[in-house]
Design goal:
- The protein has a 4-stranded mixed β-sheet.
- It is globular, with a radius of gyration of 17 Å.
- It has 9 helices and 4 strands.
- By secondary structure, it is α/β, with parallel strands linked by helices.
- The longest helix is centred in the N-terminal third of the chain and has 30 residues.
- α3 crosses α4, α6 runs antiparallel to α7 and α6 packs across α8.
- The model has no long low-confidence stretch (mean pLDDT 92).
- It is 65% helix and 7% strand.
- β3 and β4 form a beta hairpin.
- The protein folds into 2 domains: 95 residues, no CATH class; 83 residues, no CATH class.
Length: 199
Amino acid sequence: MIKYSKLLDPIFIFYCKNNPDLKIRGWNDWIPPDNEEIEKRIRDYKRKWSEYEKQIMEGMCEVLGLKFRRNTIDVYIVSGNPRQLSDPIVIKSGFKADQFVDSLAHELIHKLFEDNAKKFPISILEEMFPKETVTARNHIVTYSVLKYIYLDILKDNSRLERDIKNATKHATEDYSRAWKLVEEGGYIELIKKLKSRLK
């Protein structure tokens, strides 16, 4: 369920405007959208997500051989946030509707792994990528599934290119490293290796 979080939003607004690291990146000049604009964006997000929801959800479950444990997943929209979260899912309102779909797919992959923690303990990633950071490890698999969704389910290479570009430009080195390893290792091969280790 995609919805505005009036309880979380003031916390994120304060964080974005007062965190010294974010001030360096220009967030101190950021002006949060008003409630009417957020509601409009949420309507756009819901409409766009409804076009892709079935394909994306079924695609990620099918390729991994996993299922969600829950029927409903809350997705909280806040005015701004320098990074999106998966537990709970919190996404900024600054995305265009198409980018929101990609961001939500990313966070839902994390949620799918969380729902299958017994089959997918963290030790699997440690075994597969012993020299990588925790963030890079988590995202190698996430990005492999995202690449599968972009190319094999949605058949839209521009989404993949945009995601890689954003990770390189706006995220930390760990995210760029994860995409690099997906490109080197092959997304299908990495998914197969992961599935062979699931408990």
